[in-house]
C-alpha cells in the first residue's frame, strides 16, 4: 500500500513537470529516485506485465492528476508568480547536479578532454536552443477549428520529439513543445478537459481535444519507448559517458531556464527577487538532500 501511494505521488510530480517549460520529468525522476526503475519498466513491460502494472497503475493515475489538476494551478503560478515559481524548479535542477557529477567521475582521476567535450556539447546545444525565439500561439481555439491532417501529423511528430526530451534528465519536453509552437495549444486542450468532465455530452469539445491530444499522446508514447531503450543501452554500455551527457544537459537547462521569457512574465521587484532566491535555495536543498541518498 505504501509503495502504491509513493508511486502515485511520483507520477503526480512527474506530471506537473510535463506542463512546466524548461523542467525535465527525467530530472524529477532522478531527484525522487525512480528514474532507473521507470526506464526498466518501460523497456521490459512485456516480460512481466503483471508485476509492472502494479507499479504503473498508481503512477499513471498520479501522472494524469498532476497534468489535469495542476495545469490550472501552474498556469496561475506562472502568470502571477513566475519568477519564484521557476526559481524553485531551477533550484531542483541545480541541486541534483552534484549527484550526477559524482556518478560521472571515476575515483582517482580527472576527466579526459573527450569526456569534458561530452558534457560541454549538451551545454552548448541548450545555450543555442535557449537563444531561439519560440513561436507564440495567440488563438488556440481558432487553430483547432482550422486544423487539418498535415498539422495533426506535425503534432504527432512534436509529441515524439518532446517525449524523447522528457525522458532525458535536463532536457524538457514542454520546452521542445514551446519551441515548436505546440505548447500553448497542448495546455489549452488539457485545460479544456475539466470543461468536458463538467459536460461529457459536449461532443464538439471532445473532438477538439482529441484532435490535439490524440496525435500528441500517441507521439509521446512512441518517443518514450524509443528513448527509454536508448537510455538503458547507453547506461549499460557507456555508463560514464551517459552521465557526462546528462550532467551537461542539467547545467545547460539551468541556463536555458534563466533565459526563458516565462521566468519574468509576471514582473520583478526587490521583494520578488528575494522570494525567488528563497525558492531557488529551497528547491536546491530538497533535490540535493534526495540526491545525496542515491550516491
Radius of gyration: 19 Å
Please provide the count of β strands.
Answer: 0
What's the helix count? 13
Q: What is the straight-line distance between the termini?
A: 27 Å
- Summarize the main sheet: none
By helix and strand content, what is the structural category?
mainly alpha
Structural shape: globular
Spans of at least 5 consecutive residues whose pLDDT stays below 50 are none
SSE ordering: HHHHHHHHHHHHH
Helix share bin = over 70%
**What percent strand?**
under 5%
Q: Mean pLDDT score, rounded? A: 83
How is the topology of this model organized?
Elements: H1 2-18, H2 25-32, H3 35-44, H4 49-80, H5 82-104, H6 113-131, H7 140-145, H8 149-167, H9 173-180, H10 183-198, H11 203-237, H12 239-259, H13 270-292
Helix pairs in contact: 1-2, 1-4, 3-11, 4-5, 4-10, 5-12, 5-13, 6-12, 8-9, 8-11, 10-11, 11-12
General description of the model:
The chain is mainly alpha-helical. The chain is built from 13 helices and no strands. The chain has helices at residues 2-18, 25-32, 35-44, 49-80, 82-104, 113-131, 140-145, 149-167, 173-180, 183-198, 203-237, 239-259, 270-292. α4 crosses α5 (82-104), α5 (82-104) runs antiparallel to α12 and α8 runs antiparallel to α9 (173-180). The longest helix is centred in the C-terminal third of the chain and has 35 residues, at 203-237. It is globular, with a radius of gyration of 19 Å. It starts with a helix and ends with a helix. 43% of the residues are buried.
Amino acid at each position: 500500500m505504501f509503495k502504491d501511494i509513493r508511486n502515485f505521488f511520483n507520477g503526480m510530480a512527474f506530471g506537473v513537470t510535463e506542463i512546466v517549460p524548461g523542467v525535465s520529468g527525467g530530472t524529477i525522476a532522478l531527484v525522487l529516485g525512480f528514474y532507473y526503475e521507470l526506464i526498466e519498466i518501460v523497456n521490459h513491460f512485456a516480460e512481466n506485465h503483471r508485476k509492472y502494472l502494479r507499479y504503473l497503475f498508481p503512477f499513471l493515475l498520479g501522472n494524469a492528476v498532476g497534468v489535469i489538476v495542476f495545469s490550472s494551478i501552474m498556469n496561475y503560478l506562472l502568470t502571477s508568480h513566475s519568477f519564484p515559481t521557476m526559481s524553485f524548479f531551477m533550484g531542483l535542477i541545480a541541486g541534483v547536479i552534484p549527484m550526477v557529477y559524482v556518478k560521472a567521475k571515476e575515483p582517482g582521476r580527472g576527466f579526459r578532454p573527450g569526456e569534458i567535450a561530452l558534457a560541454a556539447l549538451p551545454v552548448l546545444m541548450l545555450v543555442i536552443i535557449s537563444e531561439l525565439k519560440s513561436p507564440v500561439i495567440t488563438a488556440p481555439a481558432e487553430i483547432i477549428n482550422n486544423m487539418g491532417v498535415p498539422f495533426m501529423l506535425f503534432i504527432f511528430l512534436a509529441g515524439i520529439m518532446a517525449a524523447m526530451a522528457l525522458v532525458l534528465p535536463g532536457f524538457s519536453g514542454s520546452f521542445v513543445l514551446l519551441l515548436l509552437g505546440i505548447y500553448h495549444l497542448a495546455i489549452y486542450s488539457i485545460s479544456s478537459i475539466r470543461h468536458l468532465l463538467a459536460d461529457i455530452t459536449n461532443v464538439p469539445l471532445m473532438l477538439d481535444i482529441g484532435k490535439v491530444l490524440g496525435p500528441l499522446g500517441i507521439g509521446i508514447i512512441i518517443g518514450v519507448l524509443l528513448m527509454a531503450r536508448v537510455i538503458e543501452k547507453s547506461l549499460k554500455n557507456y555508463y560514464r559517458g551517459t552521465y557526462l551527457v546528462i550532467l551537461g544537459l542539467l547545467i545547460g537547462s539551468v541556463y536555458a531556464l534563466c533565459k526563458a521569457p516565462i521566468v519574468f512574465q509576471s514582473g520583478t521587484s526587490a521583494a520578488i527577487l528575494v522570494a525567488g532566491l528563497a525558492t531557488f535555495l529551497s528547491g536546491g536543498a530538497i533535490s540535493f538532500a534526495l540526491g545525496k541518498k542515491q550516491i
